[in-house]
Amino acid sequence: MSKSEDNAHYLKYRDYYRAYGAAYRKTAAFKESQRKYNQSAKGWQTRLNYQSRPEVNERRKVEFKDWRSRNKVKIVAHRIFWKAMKAGLLTKEPCFSCGHDPALAHHEHYSFPHRVWWLCDSCHQRHHVSRGT
Fold this sequence. Notes:
mainly alpha; 66% helix
């Protein structure tokens, strides 16, 4: 096939290729290969090279500033929570769901900064997936 024939073939079946790629990216095999790549030296170096680009840093600064302006209640709740942790008013506990340690603090409602669920990373992700947040 010539280059123009390849291009015409791709354009004809573009939706099929996109759907196939999207379905493959949801498989466990793809996720496992991505995890291995991200943990490899090449994966780390690629990520560092990308994150050190000036335009990426500027975009991340802007995005973080926007996030902070939209989530002031969360920021205040996190500050109050960490001050209570430093003061010893709250202590770290194992996962509420499975008992695994270490666990992350999860705020169900940011209006109550001291009320947290201690969830391990996998239970925390499962909780957000089940709630769609």
